[in-house]
Amino acid sequence: MSAARHRYLRALGIPVWGLRSRAAAGDVAEELARPEARPGAAAAPSAGPEREVGSEWARLAAEVAACTRCALHRTRTQTVFGVGRQDADLVIVGEAPGAEEDRQGEPFVGPAGQLLNAMLGAIGLSRGEVYIANILKCRPPGNRDPKPEEQATCTPYLDRQIELIEPRAILALGRIAAQWLLQSELPIGRLRGQQLHYGKSGIPLVVTYHPAYLLRSPAAKAKSWQDLCMIRDLISMKP
């Protein structure tokens, strides 16, 4: 058991137990795509659909970086596109970048990001195995809540990311992300603790508390652990 997972479970006051190990898939496709080094060897066939998906990701990232669709582009340091596996089983969605995210260009860094990493470790996942993004790609000034018109303008980028990834589940962090993704006005206490579904795609969606809230309210970590177990079970199910 990893030290991070042990620390997280111990902080929640939950007995430590072991998960079955997950078989790691070898990156055979990447090796097979390489042309042979010897002179005169035939080049390996192009990756076809994979190459097209990679081009789509590049186009989308460039579009986000140059976006001026709302006033937030005037105050940002840079856009925060998202980070992680582009074929991840799990997509994690927060509300908007904060000051450190705006500086580094990566979502969930700093203390909240460290806790998120520990939460993932507790269910046998690493940060590099999931995809992490926000509703907004630009930081709202003063870390204020996103405005509805900003969310409406930016959501198509997130929608496209989810379409390209085709995850098995989505984890919504915090009230704002959960309410927007579900188009609901229910409080987070009534949204979490159950399996919901995202948009027309119907991807299973679980709501839990934002790591920043958990840092302020450690007592809520026990409920968050229940949500993490639910998301673990969803992505562990056979297709």
Structure description:
The protein has a single domain (49-236), classed as 3-Layer(aba) Sandwich (Uracil-DNA Glycosylase, subunit E). The longest helix is centred in the middle third of the chain and has 18 residues, at 148-165. A six-stranded mixed sheet has the order 1-3-2-4-6-5, sandwiched between helices. It starts with a helix and ends with a helix. The protein has helices at 3-12, 28-32, 49-65, 99-104, 110-122, 148-165, 175-182, 188-191, 211-216, 221-236, and strands at residues 83-84, 90-94, 131-134, 169-173, 196-198, 203-208. A hairpin with a 4-residue loop joins strand 5 (196-198) and strand 6. The chain contains ten helices and six strands; from the N terminus they run αααββααβαβααββαα. The chain is an alpha/beta fold.
Defining traits:
10% strand; alpha/beta; 239 residues; Uracil-DNA Glycosylase, subunit E; 43% helix; single chain; 6-stranded mixed β-sheet
Topology:
Elements: H1 3-12, H2 28-32, H3 49-65, E1 83-84, E2 90-94, H4 99-104, H5 110-122, E3 131-134, H6 148-165, E4 169-173, H7 175-182, H8 188-191, E5 196-198, E6 203-208, H9 211-216, H10 221-236
Parallel strand pairs: 2-3, 2-4, 4-6
Antiparallel strand pairs: 1-3, 5-6
Helix pairs in contact: 1-5, 3-6
In short:
The protein is α/β, with parallel strands linked by helices and 239 residues long. It has helices at 3-12, 28-32, 49-65, 99-104, 110-122, 148-165, 175-182, 188-191, 211-216, 221-236; strands at 83-84, 90-94, 131-134, 169-173, 196-198, 203-208.
